[in-house]
Amino acid sequence: MKLNPKKISACFISLLVFLISFSISCENQQTETVDTETRWWKGNLHTHSLWSDGDHFPEVITRWYKENGYHFLSVSDHNILQQGEMWIQPEFNHHAQSGGGIAVFEQYLEEFGENWVEYKMVNDTLEARLKPLNEYRHLFEEAGKFMLINSEEITDVHVVHVNAHNILHFIPPQGGATVRETIQNNVNAVHHHHHETGQEMFPHLNHPNFHFAVTAEDLAHIEGLHFFEVYNGHRGVYNYGDDNHVDLDRFWDITLTLRLAHLDLGIMYGLAVDDSHHYENSMDETALPGRGWVMVRSDFLTPEHIIRALKAGNFYSTTGVKLRDFGVTDGEYFVEIDPEPDVEYTVQFIGTSKNHDISSRPVLDENGEEMRATRIYSEEIGTVFKELTGTKASYELTGDELYVRAKIISSKVHPNPFAEGDTEVAWTQPFVMER
Ligand SMILES: [Zn+2]
Ligand SMILES: [Zn+2]
Questions:
Q1: The domain containing residue 389 runs over which residues?
Q2: pLDDT tens digits, one per residue of 155-195
């Protein structure tokens, strides 16, 4: 039998057309279901609503985050999950003075409409239903675009607040005789819940300088805890310390040095979060959304993948500075900034050497009495190894470092700052040198 070359080429072309159309349809299908491209996802891991002491309804808050470029949001109310039947009286809620109250309800009703919002009059008082997460999440969640994470701010004695992320049931505050014991008990409860359910989850320590409740030595001693807030957008939390208390950058370096060189308790990652309480219509600017967030590098936007990426240190924290990339390659710790026009960037590579002076002394009050505060250490803890300006920076590792991390400080004034005059910054995660 002789083959007809024309027939073969026609056959070949139709096969080619089929393959192309097949691959196009595959591509379309893929983008419609999940986004599998490795990319940076923007998220806030600390958010309050009317379920506890935030001043707005969860749907209005979620819409704000989604419309402002976030891909994920942990809803983390105090000692409660957004589950079950809950009615509030907007007129009498305790945020009425700060712009909550009826005005907030009216805004909610206007935005979401009579067919969504549930309310009733009981003895001449308006009552509105707070929707559980599992009801309202369907209005917002989209594969590869936006998701909500079920979290709780476990709010305990000694001003110990621990956020527990992606949990399945409520975790009551565990209590404890001391700050350290209380943090440890709550961290253990989250790990216990994880082992019980097999679900990926993690705890993080909130605002250590709130009431100056937690010291770096406390944080250093907690087993199984690898996240704390190096930045919290609530104006009452003393991110920058005071005369007797270290700022949270130094706090982080002391914690890292103690954990890595002296206690063998592993890394501590630094998170930036909002701790938002006050939303649209609020006259109170104490805890507005949009001040600090994390950018997580992951293939998938699912809670499991985001949490695994966080646990691998594959993220940076920021109050506005955007990065293209950071990491360690060819013996160098590098940072590449995604710059904005007319903004200058200073990159600091910060760390502690393996050989360092760990001696310390206590902070004394005006009567010479020892204060409960992070102790005073030598300048060998948390040294700036190198500082330079530009949009690309690298630091050549010598091998003598215990760890190295980078802080990127921009010249751009933060439009919605924690403190007046703040410029936008970002923190990358520590690279720990093998011993
Ligand atoms: Zn808190
Ligand atoms: Zn909070």
A1: 37-86+130-432
A2: 999 999 999 999 999 999 999 999 999 999 999 999 999 99
Q: Verify that 322 and 260 share a domain, yes or no.
A: yes
Query: How many structural domains is the chain composed of?
Result: 2
Radius of gyration over every alpha carbon of the chain, rounded to an integer in angstroms = 25
How far, in Å, from the CA of 432 to the mean position of ligand 1? 29
Distance 193 CA to ligand 2 centre (A): 21
Measure 46 CA to ligand 2 centroid, in angstroms: 6
CATH (domain of 168): 3.20.20.140
Which residues of the chain carry a pLDDT beneath 50?
Answer: 1-32
Ligand nearest to C-alpha 49 = 2
Cα–Cα dist 44/179, whole Å: 26
CB 80 within 8 A of CB 150: no
| 297 domain residue, yes or no | yes
Q: Are residues 166 and 93 in the same domain?
A: no
Based on the fold, state whether residues 391 and 376 are members of the same structural domain.
Answer: yes
**Cβ proximity of 311 and 226 under 8 Å:** yes
Pair of tokens at residue 308:
């695994």
266-297 pLDDT, tens digit each: 999 999 999 999 997 777 899 999 999 999 99
| CA dist., res. 88 & res. 65, Å (int) | 23
Q: Nearest ligand, CA of residue 77?
A: 2
Instruction: Identify whether the C-beta of residue 297 lies closer than 8 Å to the C-beta of residue 40.
Output: yes
Same domain, 202 and 101: no
